[in-house]
Amino acid sequence: MPSVPHDALVTLFRNRPTMAPELLRDVLHADVPPFDHVRIGEASLGEIVPTEYRADLVLLLEGASPGEVHAALVLEAQLRRDPDKRWSWPVYLTNLRARLRCPVVLVVVANDASVAAWSARPIEMGHPSWVLTPLVLGPSAVPAVRDVDAAVEAPELAVLSAMVHGADDDALEIARAALAAAARLDDERSRLYADLVIRSAHEDARAILEALMASGNYEYQSDFARRYVAQGRAEGEAKGRAEGRAQAVLDVLRVRGIDISAEMRERILSCTESALLDAWLERAVTAKSVSDVVGG
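The chain above was modelled as a monomer; its predicted structure follows.
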């Protein structure tokens, strides 16, 4: 049964079909035929043999004329090692090649480095000189999108980046760029993408994101995020909005392992200026000490 992360990876490429050939061409430097647009094809690949074979996604690279297919990509989202795939992947390619009568390429997307390395291993077919080497988009191949403008330009790539780099040291920066991009999309994609980004971030980064959301400064559309925004607003009604933001500053510093003296804690909690608290909260995400946040 496909998992949420598995389906999410497939959805990103379904929502932005050009992303797969662009990454193959620009990152893996694969020889991708020229194309005018990319269309999602039929993923059932079991027409030639009795067993039903179904790929995660089939992308057709088409020319300007209707039905002019230059090449096809079979995209597989792989979250774990599965020895059976080394038998079924060649079937996907040969069946689709026979059906479409065009070049066919296998693309494996993996959000774990060890799974990516396993997926990239050549598959010896037995026939002389016939070896299938999957093209793999893993953590080393997917660019880390940290810039908000770049994330807004390619939101699916930004979310993919957050998913595969969620354990990196700069996961928070990557996640914030992806969330900023998600906030500009329609409600359905915005909710889905925000949830995926938050789920993918490592524990410390996720805690900081939750603290930022609880402060009320971030208007993300995710149901997951709304829980923290609502919590922050409820606390704001009870204790005052400024105090809620001050507590968010302390939460971020605590999660990041920065020591806070009693004097500094009192200074932060006693602040009632919203603009100043917003500035402190922004600094707390990257600060190395409390003085970097509130000054000397």
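Residues 47-51, 219-239 have pLDDT under 50 and may be disordered.
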